[in-house]
From TrEMBL:
Residues 23-355 form the Adenosine deaminase domain. It comes from Streptomyces narbonensis. Keywords: Hydrolase, Metal-binding, Nucleotide metabolism, Zinc. SUPFAM superfamilies: Metallo-dependent hydrolases (SSF51556). The gene is add. Catalyzes the hydrolytic deamination of adenosine and 2-deoxyadenosine. One of its GO terms (molecular function) is hydrolase activity. It is an enzyme of class 3 (hydrolase). Its cofactor is Zn(2+). Zn(2+) binds at residues 28, 30, 214, 302. This is Adenosine deaminase.
Length: 362
């Protein structure tokens, strides 16, 4: 089923008040997939980018969601050409990062790891280091504007189809004291297995640096196996196709067992999965089965603009599909902080001083 066939799904879907107030943590959210549509229009005008499908912000938001709602990851990813086109200067990157932090904080997000691929922001003449510095400055500004209600860290993404992943891994290590919490690889999964980027992962391991890998979204269990057992990933972006290794009666194969028993977090993004064809609809999305089987599940947006969603809306979809109450979202939020690439005392402080009291007060 495509989202556009479902009248309950547009971004304006009503969200219960308690969901907005609930403290949330997001581990999987792309900076270049979550811009404000009005910001894209303004920046496009400023920079003379004329290829936008429309200059009306509301129409643009609908365009992204519909264009991404194709059933194919490759077509979903084509829409990012329009966001990356306006993310080529220091000012634009700073502004977009600051607005991202503000928007997440307004949605009740208290901790966010935001990822982006620095190599996609060099067309205006910035260096990789300048890109990272601009985004970091923007996030610090956004945290200030949100009155300290949110903590943001970044993940630097290497693109699966290019050959710069080792360089991006080195960039991650170089900026680790400066708001960069880890590394990721993203992009089209078919034909680009994660082991192509082994030198990047080996460098990160040697440097004791965190990483996650998009796997098990467009390709099945073999991609997850490679990400976990060959590349040594700590978390899995999406990972929903781990169900390939689970029998109908719930018996786990060896890979599924390994992932569950080692508490390797799955960064699950239900709405995005519906758009790329990784799942059919919310009600049959494997998140509920995986949760009941004991996997470490985190709930995420993937791309707030491109998927037309927010953390609150993802929560609401789960309430509607599975009847989840606050206790399940508290579990997802604590799971996200347990799996966050943040030092243990900081994770523990967020759980004890922000998340637990926030849910107790709902
Ligand atoms: O769900 C996804 N799967 C794979 N790649 C993705 C997904 N969402 C976004 N990107 C890719 O990651 C880049 C850096 O943020 C984006 O430009 C997009 O190409
Ligand atoms: Zn993603």
């Amino acid at each position: 089923m495509h989202l556009s066939d479902n009248p309950a799904t547009p971004a304006a879907a009503t969200v219960s008040e308690w969901i907005r107030r609930a403290p949330k943590a997001v581990l999987h959210d792309h900076l270049d997939g979550g811009l404000r549509p009005a910001t894209i229009v303004e920046l496009a005008r400023e920079h003379g980018y004329t290829a936008l499908p429309t200059e009306d912000p509301a129409e643009l938001a609908v365009w992204f969601r519909d264009a991404a709602d194709s059933g194919s990851l490759e077509r979903y990813l084509e829409t990012f050409a329009h966001t990356c086109a306006v993310m080529q200067t220091r000012e634009a990157l700073q502004r977009i990062a600051a607005e991202c932090a503000e928007d997440l904080a307004a949605d009740g997000v208290v901790y966010a790891e935001i990822r982006y691929a620095p190599e996609q922001h060099l067309e205006g003449g910035l260096t990789l280091d300048e890109v990272v510095e601009a985004v970091n400055d923007g996030f610090r500004e956004g945290e200030r504007r949100a009155g300290g209600r949110i903590t943001v860290r970044t993940l630097l993404t290497g693109m699966r189809h290019t050959d710069r992943s080792l360089e991006i891994a080195q960039l991650t290590v170089a900026h680790r004291e400066n708001g960069v919490a880890g590394f990721d690889i993203a992009g089209g999964e078919i034909g680009n297995p994660p082991a192509r980027h082994l030198p990047a992962f080996q460098h990160l391991k040697r440097e004791n640096c965190h990483f996650t890998i998009h796997a098990g979204e467009a390709v099945g269990a073999e991609s997850i196996h490679e990400a976990v057992q060959v590349c040594g990933t700590e978390r899995i972006g999406h990972g929903v196709r781990i169900t390939d290794d689970i029998a109908e009666d719930g018996t786990l194969g060896r890979l599924a067992s390994y992932v569950r028993d080692n508490r390797i977090a799955l960064e699950v993004c239900p709405t995005s999965n519906l758009q790329t064809g990784a799942a059919k609809d919310y009600a049959s999305h494997p998140i509920d089965e995986l949760r009941r089987l004991g996997f470490r599940i985190t709930l995420n947006t993937d791309n707030r603009l491109v998927s037309g969603t927010t953390m609150s809306e993802e929560f609401q979809h789960m309430v509607d599909a599975f009847g989840y109450g606050p206790e399940v979202f508290e579990e997802f939020t604590v799971a996200a902080l347990d799996a966050a690439f943040l030092p243990l005392p900081e994770r523990q402080r967020l759980i004890d001083e922000v998340v637990r009291p926030g849910y107790a007060a709902l």
